[in-house]
Design brief:
Subunit structure: Component of the TIM23 complex.
Strand content: 15-25%
Oligomer: single chain
Largest sheet: 6 strands, antiparallel
InterPro entries: Tim21, Tim21_IMS_sf
Subcellular location: Mitochondrion inner membrane; Mitochondrion membrane
Function: Essential component of the TIM23 complex, a complex that mediates the translocation of transit peptide-containing proteins across the mitochondrial inner membrane.
Order of helices and strands: HHHHHEEEEEEH
Helix content: 40-55%
Organism: Anopheles arabiensis
CATH superfamily of one domain: Mitochondrial import inner membrane translocase subunit Tim21
Length: 225
């Protein structure tokens, strides 16, 4: 057989080989795509499983220890609240003492000004006049002595303090009662001189008038039949 007769056979065999190679090349790429496409699915599942494990509590302390710590925290909170309450009460008392017109401190200041401006007191003691509270044995001066009480549903305050001029000294006595309007009015206010205690200087004395008004306002007892 001549070469010219074999040439068509060789060309056909070559084209057949090329076609076979063309259809067999994509197989490795498909395998690679399949393997790489499934890999992220497994990793995402492992990541989600790991994230689920982080929700589990890591506190492995005994229950008794946790209860003890919570009790200690509650006790600290109670102490803090108690301190805040005591501080608020102290501020209220200080504010009432300094700014309320019915506080003992303001009653003392108002009475002292009246005594210092009284001409009879100036003449007896000698101006200028100063006031002070009780004295201890060591000569230290304490706060002004006062007493608050309730009688027949009416509030009273009784006070005593000392005054001194450049000539003599004396003791101021006063008592006030609370009115229906909410303020205080004098029952009495007088100065007892140290050198003549039996002749006080009376600035106010409304006891008889107030007692008479209270007796008139109170209902008369009905006679027993």
């Amino acid at each position: 057989m001549s070469l010219l007769a074999l040439r068509p056979l060789l060309v056909r065999q070559r084209s057949l080989s090329l076609s076979l190679l063309r259809y067999t090349r994509p197989l490795p790429s498909l395998v690679c795509r399949y393997s790489t496409g499934n890999a992220p699915n497994h990793s995402s599942k492992s990541l989600s499983a790991g994230s689920d494990r982080t929700d589990v509590s890591t506190d492995v302390r005994p229950i008794g220890e946790r209860v003890k710590e919570n009790t200690k925290t509650a006790s600290y909170m109670g102490v803090i609240l108690l301190g805040v309450g005591v501080t608020g009460m102290l501020f209220y008392v200080i504010f009432w003492e300094l700014f309320s017109s019915d506080s003992p401190n303001n009653i003392y200041s108002e009475a002292l000004e009246r005594v210092k401006e009284e001409p009879r007191v100036k003449d007896a003691l000698g101006a200028p006049i100063k006031g002070y509270g009780e004295e201890t044995r060591r000569g230290r001066r304490t706060r002004v002595a006062h007493t608050q009480y309730v009688k027949d549903g009416v509030e009273y305050i009784r006070m005593q303090f000392h005054v001194q001029g450049f000539r003599n000294r004396g003791t101021v006595h006063l008592e006030k009662r609370k009115t229906d309007a909410g303020g205080y009015e004098y029952r009495y206010l007088f100065v007892q001189l140290d050198y003549n205690p039996h002749s006080p200087i009376i600035l106010e004395d409304n006891r008889l008038q107030q007692d008479a008004m209270r007796s008139a306002a109170s209902p008369m007892p009905q006679p027993f039949l």
